[in-house]
Amino acid sequence: MRPSFRLHHCTAIITGASSGLGAEFARQLAPHADGLVLTARRADALERVKDEVQSLNPDLKVILCACDIASDAGRAQLLEVTTALEPFPNLLINNAGAGDYGTFATSDEARTRGQIDLNITALVMLTHALLPRLQRGAGTPAGVLNVSSLAAMLPMPGLAVYAATKSFVTSFSEALRVELSDANVVVTAVCPGPTPTNFGRNARRPDGTDTDRSGQGLIRVRPQTVVRQALDALSQGRACVHPGVSVTLASVLFRLMPRRMMRLLIEKRFRAGSRERAPI
Ligand SMILES: NC(=O)c1ccc[n+]([C@@H]2O[C@H](COP(=O)([O-])OP(=O)(O)OC[C@H]3O[C@@H](n4cnc5c(N)ncnc54)[C@H](OP(=O)(O)O)[C@@H]3O)[C@@H](O)[C@H]2O)c1
Q1: Are 41 and 270 in contact (CB under 8 A)?
Q2: What is the CATH number of the domain that holds 67?
């Protein structure tokens, strides 16, 4: 039988906890959890999330680690902070992620590398380092909740590297889930569609370059709903969830659509968007 995860009395490490979905994971876990390790680069924003979650549960133990997990040194800092914890966390939420709007050819090399280091390398290496200690034995299931994206299902011109990193996250999660199915570890991938957070603002390039996001409003889902459905899916031991009815329907459509047809539609949309963005 597939394991399921108990949110009650869990202790979770949440990456990207200073805003958006990560902060919402902290809020929704606060009433159930015994402890949270919140990590992101901005210490002041983490402090605000800490105050908020402790007002929801004054008994909650909250540890902050302000570091850049895209770097080896930042991840080492996070691992050092968690090493001393007793009991050791039994849930890892790999949530931190970033995008970069605009074509690949015009992208900044450091920004592209940073995106891969955060969305892929940090997620994989933290999971590898923490996994042996997340497992507390047969009685207490462990969990790994990876934040992927609906974008994982599509090639996305104008967001090509980001969408490819999320394909990686979904694929990695599904394989890891099988490897760990006898080890009492639940691995769940959550694949949100467009969600109002700081993501879009951070993905826009310093020169203002944006991508064509028309139509996204039709399938936008609130962060509260995304996180609630992600935690429900983890609790039920599900492999993957696309939060929100509209996003679930879109995922079914993308799965059923012949790849050739999908490429044609995407190309048409990209060319139309490029014409609109072209200088007159
Ligand atoms: N919003 C959407 O439409 C959407 C859709 C699908 C999937 N997602 C995924 O959802 C996840 C959360 O994103 P969000 O929407 O909540 O965006 P967000 O509000 O921009 O949050 C991103 C979080 O990641 C942290 N972060 C960024 N770079 C980091 C680094 N180098 N080291 C450590 N932490 C870092 C940020 O904190 P600091 O700046 O303080 O470091 C922030 O807490 C991402 O994986 C994203 O790909 C988002």
Answers
A1: no
A2: 3.40.50.720
| Residue 6 maps to a domain | no
Exposure string for 241-251, b = 16+ CB within 10 A, e = fewer? bbbbeebbebb
- 3 state DSSP class of 221: coil
In 10 A of CB 167, how many CB atoms? Answer: 16
Q: Which domain holds residue 159?
A: 11-277
Domain count, the chain: 1
Q: Which residue has the higher pLDDT, 127 or 276?
A: 127
Name every protein residue with a CB atom under 6 angstroms from any ligand 1 atom: 16-22, 40-42, 45, 68-70, 95-98, 118, 147, 149, 192, 194-195, 197-199, 202
Q: Read off the pTM.
A: 0.96
Residue linked to tokens 């997990």: 69
Query: For 134-176, what is each residue's pLDDT tens digit?
Result: 987 667 889 999 999 999 999 999 999 999 999 999 999 999 9
